[in-house]
Amino acid sequence: MIVGEQKPISEIREIIAPYRRVLVLGCGTCVKTCFAGGEDETAVMASALRLSLKKDGLAGDIREWTVERQCEDEFIQEAARPAAECDAILSLACGAGVQMVARRFPDKPVLPGVNTTFIGVLEERGLFTEECAGCGQCKLALFGAVCPIARCAKKLLNGPCGGSRDGRCEVNPDTACAWHLIIERLTALGQLDNLRAYVPPTDWRTSLSGGPRKLIREDHRI
Amino acid sequence: MKYHISVFYCVNSFDASMLDRLPFKDRVVFKPVKMACSSMVKDVYLLRAFEADADAVVVLVCPEGHCRYVEGNLRAAKRIDWLRRLLDEIGIGGVRLVLCHASSGRANAAGACFESMLTMLEAEGFSPARSRCGAGAASDQRRNGKPQR
Amino acid sequence: MRTPFASKLAALLAQGNFVVTAECGPPRGSDAAAVIQKGRLLKDVVDAVNVTDNQTAIVRMSSIAACRHLLELGLEPVMQMVTRDRNRIALQSDILGAYSMGIRNILCLSGDHQSFGSQPDAMNVFDIDSMNLVHAVRRMRDNGTDMSGFALKDSPRMFIGAAANPFADPFEYRVIRLAKKIDAGVDFIQTQCVYNVERFRRWMQMARDEGLLEDVHILAGITPLKSGGMARYMAAKVAGMDVPEGLIRRMEGVDKKAAPAEGVAIALETIAELREMEGLSGIHIMAIEWEAIVGDIVRAAGLTPRPTAALNRPAAGE
Q1: Residues A15 and A101 in one domain
Q2: Per the structure, how many domains does chain C have?
């Protein structure tokens, strides 16, 4: 899933300051699963903003609405009426959703309430970890399904760096060294010798580095 | 002006009639909210209590190990810690939200909790979000197109 | 196919000398004099000097520039190059430029993560890793082409080095790692500093058993300890470091003022043992910000005067 975290209230207050009537728009997919922007979180955010404005003696009108997904127009349309009635929309979706909503309601300022961070998994209850960098050229077969592009801070392809310590990354001891995991996993599979093969430089053309990407499926375009 | 204290409780943990017998009841307006399981009270209801001019909010849950829903009171503790930080961020003050373990067999625990709440309120004063011109005058509040009940 | 020696370090190793290299960190500023001063301390006591590349991700004068200053002083620089800050375009470009200025040795590294340095807010690059870099430099030397396959005019012929840590990694993986580096094109390896000679010996033994020592020259790292505190810190905080408890206690057991001398004594004992180690081609002394001690150590170890190399250096412009 896409993972993100709510911006602090103080930052959101600054972002919505020019607007009197603001619609807090939630999303029922990725940001719901990481507790950033689902229906419950949207209700809390709206209430928190009202309280915050009230405390500062400011008049403000904060409303709330949640759609199933903000990355697809057919779902965004359900918010058309509440959107029309507001001065601005504070979207709690990921960055992609915010932009899609802006395209759907071009005459309304659409503002982000969430900092989108990574593609990841729910490692355990309450813990989300980054797993995939979207490089567009998946090499997980070489690395025992542990990705060195996303999970190695240096994107090393041919073995760990000298900073790996007790299986932890030099950048953050709370993070596992991806190469330690790769070696462990391939050893368990009896495939450690796979690492003997030289892995050549990545072709970054398929990644964000090559420019924003597009997927066209003609078989689904009518 | 009296302090407004919202009390979320479940029948397993608390007998609301106790509120009428508290010694300081003349200085407080209690707003009791009865639930099936107070541990499961949604965050937004606690915040809306503050929006409705509560100066403090108490959530009474069953003692540890006694929750009907097993982990409910553990989760409630975590949720309320989070909300307290949010209330601090907003500037209302997380001290105004309290989780209290009680049991209908030990009324003292709840009583002690309310007393310390009062002490806190005397130090902190009324909620900074309390309406300047009376309750409910703040703004029209509509959720998902339906007017507030 | 190996071309005639352009590198003095390569020539010495080919001659069978036990080489001595050291390290020099460029200044946090544009003062060439700072580099030259360090160079003067190292001249004639070592065979080559590594120049670090924004070590610990702290912005310093570039390695390529500092190498040039050392060259003009008559020293043999080893340009360290990390893949943290430059993509393959910039790396190849700098290698061409370095060679054009007379630099003949390169040490290929990944580099410390930028979170440790003076600009933790910077984006890192890591377009390629250190093994890819080794491969690329070797290709320039042996095929005369750059990474895109373009036939370079006057392709650089660098002597290629890499780092290795005999004290890290699960044991089974170490052989794979070393063999892979050699296959990629590494000519020489400088190791993490050695305090546990026995353990280092076992790693050398393993390399020898695999036949790896026939294709690469190994230089053992030496870092003189300055204090008990330093010994404890290295043992506890530095990744992949093995500092035997006995050595820590030895350092802590002497008066603070006498500690550096004790550290030097330990270094000399280590060097003496290493000189007897079969298959070892030399030592690499890393005394960062204590460059003055390098000469003392080399002289006390009986390793001076340094040998001259029979160089087959191409004429300028070649």
Answers
A1: yes
A2: 1
Q: Which residues of A touch C223 (CB under 8 A)?
A: none
Cβ-based contacts of A23 with chain B (< 8 Å): none
- Cα(C280)–Cα(C278) distance, integer angstroms: 6
Residues 6 or more apart in contact with residue A70 via CB below 8 angstroms: A25, A27, A76, A91, A93, A94, A96, A97, A98, A100, A101
**Residue C120 near chain A (CB below 8 Å):** no
Within-domain flag for A10: yes
What does each of the 318 residues of chain C score in pLDDT, given as a tens digit?
Answer: 344 558 999 999 999 999 999 999 999 999 999 999 999 999 999 999 999 999 999 999 999 999 999 999 999 999 999 999 999 999 999 999 999 999 999 999 999 999 999 999 999 999 999 999 999 999 999 999 999 999 999 999 999 999 999 988 777 788 888 999 999 999 999 999 999 999 999 999 999 999 999 989 999 999 999 999 999 999 988 877 899 999 999 999 999 999 999 999 999 999 999 999 999 999 999 997 898 999 999 999 999 999 988 765 554 444
Burial of A23 (0-12, 13-18, 19+ CB in 10 A): buried
Nearest CB to A82 within list B48, B138, B145: B145
Verify whether the Cβ–Cβ distance A63 to B131 is below 8 Å.
no
Q: For chain B, which residues make up each domain, given as ranges?
A: 3-147
Q: Which CATH number fits domain B3-147: 3.40.50, 1.50.10, 1.10.287, 3.40.1350?
A: 3.40.50
Task: Say yes or no for a CB contact (<8 Å) between B90 and A51.
Answer: yes
H or E stretch at B9: strand B3-10
Which chain C residues contact residue A202 at CB under 8 A?
127-128
**Token representation of residue B74:** 């553990």
Min distance A121 CA to chain B CA atoms (Å): 22
Residues from chain C that touch A158, judged by Cβ atoms under 8 A, are: 129-132, 180, 184
Rounded to whole angstroms, the Cα distance separating C207 from C221 reads 17
C-alpha–C-alpha distance, residues B109 and B60, integer Å: 10
Rounded to the nearest 10 degrees, what angle do helices A39-55 and B72-90 cross at? 40
Q: Which amino acid is at C130?
A: S
Check A51 against B89: CB less than 8 A apart. Answer: no
Q: What pTM does this model have?
A: 0.89
Cross-chain CB nearest to B50 (options A10, A51, A64):
A51
Q: How many residues make up chain A in this entry?
A: 222
Which residues of chain A make contact with C83, given a CB cutoff of 8 A? 154
Cβ of residue C80 closer than 8 Å to a chain A Cβ: no
- Between chain A and chain B, how many beta carbons pairs sit less than 8 Å apart? 62
* A9, A65, A66: residue with CB nearest B89: A9
CB contact under 8 A, B140 and A60: no
